[in-house]
Amino acid sequence: MAVRWDIFCTVVDNYGDIGVTWRLARQLVAEHRCAVRLWVDDLRAFERLCPEIDVTLSEQWQQGVQVRHWPGEWVPTEAADVVIAAFACQLPSAYMDAMAERQTTPLWMNLDYLSAEDWVIGCHGLPSVKYKHVQKYFFFPGFQAGTGGLLREAGLLERRRQFQQDAGAQRIFLQELGVERAPDTCLISLFAYENAGVASWFDAMASDTQAFHVLVPEGRVLGDVERWLGIDGLKVGALHRRGALTVQVLPFVRQDQYDQLLWCCDFNAVRGEDSFVRAQWAGRPLLWHIYQQEEDVHLEKLEAFLRLYTQGLSQAAQKAISGLWRAWNAGQDMAEHWKATREQQQELAEHAQAWCLEQASRADLAAALVKFYGNWI
């Protein structure tokens, strides 16, 4: 009998929460032969990642995963063998009772947010609260030994390598999105939250001698792009040039296509958690727009990652990329930091590849979860 897993996702940040849980659910089914129910409270957000989703259904199957809409009124359901509360979401009280009523107690885990902070290693795998006799455990994704690792499907890096070595495949993929890449042009993807730093960054690229082509999938940063261009209501397919910079609006694409977009680009600006991890697997230099939290707690997480990520870089490269990330996340002027980053582009490109391989040397998140369950029983 396949081990039954229930994964609960409350959509908070549009796509990050569901992006992570959808990837995880599919991988558990495809690679570990688990029976997975993915409970989602917002099917509209899910639909953007998986267009086949029927938002009117309370239950459906997608890519081997049973997708259940998590409505306000709970329907009595038997608890699974493994229960994951993604990002500390609160489970329905009736479901918690169902966990406690099982003859065999389920493994209950809180799959937490990704962080490079030192304390994560010490807390990973520790017991948390109890509900009746059901013990909850912390499970932390992470970048170091002693954490749960990162989501990475089998063969991902080999598929990426083949794609990045195939200029024809890249050209066909970009053309399907309406993108024509000119020779000797630096291709950049931009997926971010609202950010006042867009104007200074675009100004710097527009006035450069190097040609840049920035691809902007539909999202929250489009308002800042519109203000810089002086245009209202940018639509998919819009293409504008100013100086050395070409800006093009792309449709919001499904996850496998987004991976390929990242693989095509020379530099990727990403946001949140899911796209942040996928940009690291792309093996290209990146810029992370971290999700803003109260009292600037997110900046501590940003600094923790920078301390880890920049190890092994020269002082100049370390200063350049760290300065760029800090300015971006503070909405400050990007011009000098971008110039410094461009001057260190070769070292930063080599470092991105090395970092990717280092992270891939560890167990992936899905495998770590399955192993944790195996050890627990």
Automatic annotation (TrEMBL):
<dbReference type="GO" id="GO:0003746">
    <property type="term" value="F:translation elongation factor activity"/>
</dbReference>
<keyword id="KW-0251">Elongation factor</keyword>
<protein>
    <recommendedName>
        <fullName>Protein-arginine rhamnosyltransferase</fullName>
    </recommendedName>
</protein>
<dbReference type="Pfam" id="PF10093">
    <property type="entry name" value="EarP"/>
</dbReference>
<comment type="similarity">
    <text>Belongs to the glycosyltransferase 104 family.</text>
</comment>
<comment type="function">
    <text>Protein-arginine rhamnosyltransferase that catalyzes the transfer of a single rhamnose to elongation factor P (EF-P) on 'Lys-32', a modification required for EF-P-dependent rescue of polyproline stalled ribosomes.</text>
</comment>
<keyword id="KW-0648">Protein biosynthesis</keyword>
<dbReference type="InterPro" id="IPR016633">
    <property type="entry name" value="EarP"/>
</dbReference>
<keyword id="KW-0808">Transferase</keyword>
<dbReference type="GO" id="GO:0106361">
    <property type="term" value="F:protein-arginine rhamnosyltransferase activity"/>
</dbReference>
<keyword id="KW-0328">Glycosyltransferase</keyword>
